[in-house]
């Protein structure tokens, strides 16, 4: 937990004042029974009269007001410190996730990351607020109460030392039982969030396949597991409180029993017995408070371990110690005997791949689903690092570039066209935040997106909903392509990014890229022969290997795999026309 102290540094003033104000409140609370005892024993039984009672009552009221002010200020300062702590920790965890490679992200589910950065941070934030207030209040009340009780009557105060071991035994047993359950509860919450996230992301598929009931059942199962485990944890807590209360009440009854005998023997006064009962109640109450704190701390420890997993994750893709200063100018791409295997996979996703693409060439990669096409191009901008071999851009191993320099020179349009909430212009400027309106318009024209953008009354200021759900799939693909073109990359990767476009629109985009961006290297991953046939070079992949390479005409006459793809698509087109 020491690593988290740094998140309190900016709130030193609040961190200092919160416990000081709590000390003031506790001092005032411990003074109250003494004042009440004086009113009973001196004012009422001693016959000092109403003036003394009013004076003592006024002092009690003043002490109460000072204690109230101390408690309120302690809460304010603890809240400031804990909220700033949570903000900084959340920012650090989010920044660390932003530095993750795809392989790092694969180690965590996205739902788990969301839970850790939100729910788990809140638990730690809560424990910080408790530490600044309750971790001060409970021990001070405990030891201060014991001291005052001993000063009144040591014989009666001895009852406390019988009750304390019993309370500690209940506390220790509860923590040992509850801590493992709280760790599992967080894992179950991850599962609930995962189901929710999948369902909301794929809501259109759920409705299209009429699977709402199935998703309800799946969520119900995950929700029930989470609820059942949470109930089990709370049952342990619920059992603890009555036991603690029973021990506390037994101690109070004992004080009343023995105190009454001592009052009858004139060894103690009634007000002192009343004060002693108050102190014992507060002493044992502080122990109950500490039990709740330790239980919360055990839950926070489980959250801390989950956040530590993020902060301690080893980033496998980092900038080199001595990065090259050579800028990427040509866009040459070379693979030298490259193999790659996903973490935990049984075999390589791509095996012994070697090829060269000259700057300005257009290369298409075809192959069946799972042949390794997307994996291959993900190695160019270092979304993953090769397992063996080397990927070079402009003759330099990509691992020798600064990541920011490499990715600034490589534009990627992924299969899943993610757009973000905001205006169209804001989304396009992801490619270049300083792009002018003319540059946005030019990129949109090349991507065949200008027409539908300007047809909107708000034009480039039109607002996209989350993930761009207020635009069609084809429109989102064209905006994603425009976003990459705004970047003006030396290498442009189109990962099946025209699958939602009609052939005419796709053909216009290809021609525009060929004529206006002739010096840009374009790598196209395609499912359709029509998307690849005009490329300078077509590579055919099967089972993670490049099995054939050449032009459309060459492959049609010399590649079995390419011919099979061509014939299957030609037959499918004929069947569609017949219908």
Give a quick set of tags describing it:
single chain; about 575 residues; alpha/beta; four-stranded antiparallel β-sheet; 12 strands; about 65% helix; elongated; disordered C terminus
Principal-axes geometry comes out as elongated
Quote the average pLDDT.
83
Distinct helical segment count: 18
Query: What is the CA-based Rg, rounded?
Result: 35 Å
Helix content: 55-70%
Biggest β-sheet: strands ordered side by side in the sheet:
6-9-10-3-11-12
Strand content: 5-15%
Structural class: alpha/beta
**Unreliable stretches:** 574-579
- The H/E string reads HHHHHHHHEEEHEEHEEHHHEHEHEHEEHH
Total number of beta strands: 12
Largest pleated sheet? 6 strands, mixed
Query: How far apart are the termini?
Result: 68 Å
Structural commentary:
This protein is an alpha/beta fold and 579 residues long. Helices cover 64% and strands 10% of the residues. It is built from 18 helices and twelve strands. The protein has helices at residues 12-44, 50-98, 102-107, 110-152, 154-201, 203-208, 212-264, 270-311, 373-378, 403-409, 424-428, 437-446, 450-455, 473-486, 503-516, 529-532, 552-558, 560-578; strands at residues 333-340, 350-357, 362-367, 388-393, 396-397, 410-413, 422-423, 463-464, 491-495, 521-525, 537-542, 545-550. A six-stranded mixed β-sheet has the order 6-9-10-3-11-12. A four-stranded antiparallel β-sheet has the order 2-1-4-5. Helix 1 (12-44) packs parallel to helix 4 (110-152). The longest helix has 53 residues, at 212-264. The radius of gyration is 35 Å and the shape is elongated. Residues 574-579 have low confidence and may be disordered.
């Amino acid at each position: 937990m020491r690593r988290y102290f740094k998140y309190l540094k900016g709130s030193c003033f609040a961190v200092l004042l919160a416990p000081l104000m709590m000390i003031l409140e506790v001092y005032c609370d411990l003074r109250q029974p003494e004042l009440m005892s004086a009113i009973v024993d001196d004012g009422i039984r001693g016959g000092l009269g109403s003036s003394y009672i009013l004076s003592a009552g006024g002092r009690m009221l003043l002490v109460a007001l000072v204690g109230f002010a101390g408690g309120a200020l302690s809460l304010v300062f603890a809240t400031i410190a804990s909220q700033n702590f949570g903000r900084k920790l959340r920012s650090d965890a989010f920044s660390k996730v932003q530095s993750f490679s795809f392989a790092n992200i694969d180690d965590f589910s996205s739902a788990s990351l969301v839970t850790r950065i939100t729910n788990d941070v809140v638990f730690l934030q809560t424990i910080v607020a408790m530490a600044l207030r309750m971790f001060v209040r409970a021990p001070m009340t405990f030891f201060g109460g014991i001291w005052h009780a001993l000063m009144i009557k040591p014989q009666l105060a001895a009852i406390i030392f019988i009750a304390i071991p019993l309370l500690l035994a209940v506390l220790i047993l509860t923590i040992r039982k509850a801590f493992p359950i709280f760790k599992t509860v967080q894992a179950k919450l991850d599962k609930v969030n995962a189901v929710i996230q999948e369902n909301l992301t794929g809501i259109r598929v759920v409705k299209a396949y009429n699977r709402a009931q199935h998703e309800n059942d799946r969520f119900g199962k995950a929700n029930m597991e989470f609820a059942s485990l949470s109930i089990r944890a709370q049952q342990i807590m619920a059992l603890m409180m009555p036991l603690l209360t029973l021990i506390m009440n037994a101690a109070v009854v004992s004080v009343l029993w023995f105190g009454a005998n001592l009052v009858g023997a004139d060894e103690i006064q009634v007000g002192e017995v009343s004060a002693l009962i108050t102190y014992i109640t507060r002493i044992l109450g502080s122990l109950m408070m500490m039990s709740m704190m330790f239980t919360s701390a055990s839950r926070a420890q489980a959250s801390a371990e989950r956040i530590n997993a993020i902060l301690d994750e080893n980033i496998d893709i980092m900038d080199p110690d001595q990065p090259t200063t050579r800028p990427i100018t040509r866009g040459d791409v070379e693979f030298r005997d490259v193999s790659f295997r996903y973490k935990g996979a049984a075999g390589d996703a791509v095996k012994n791949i070697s090829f060269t693409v000259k700057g300005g060439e257009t290369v298409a990669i075809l192959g069946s689903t799972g042949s390794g096409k997307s994996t291959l191009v993900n190695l160019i901008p270092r979304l993953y690092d090769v397992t063996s071999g080397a990927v070079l851009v402009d003759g330099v191993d990509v691992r020798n570039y600064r990541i920011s320099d490499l990715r600034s020179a490589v534009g990627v349009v992924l299969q899943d066209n993610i757009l973000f909430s905001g205006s169209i212009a804001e989304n396009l400027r992801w490619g270049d935040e300083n792009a002018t309106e003319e540059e946005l318009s030019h990129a949109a024209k090349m991507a065949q997106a200008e027409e539908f953008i300007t047809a909107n009354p708000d034009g480039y200021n039109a607002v996209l909903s989350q993930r761009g759900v207020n635009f069609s799939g084809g429109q989102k693909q064209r905006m994603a392509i425009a976003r990459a073109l705004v970047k003006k990359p030396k290498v442009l990767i189109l990962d099946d990014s025209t699958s939602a476009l009609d052939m005419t629109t796709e053909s216009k985009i290809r021609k525009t890229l060929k004529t206006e961006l002739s010096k840009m290297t374009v790598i196209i991953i395609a499912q359709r022969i029509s998307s690849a046939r005009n490329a300078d070079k077509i590579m055919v992949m099967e089972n993670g290997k490049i099995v054939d390479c050449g032009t459309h005409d060459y492959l049609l006459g010399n590649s079995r795999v390419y011919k099979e793809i061509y014939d299957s698509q030609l037959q499918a087109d004929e069947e569609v026309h017949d219908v």
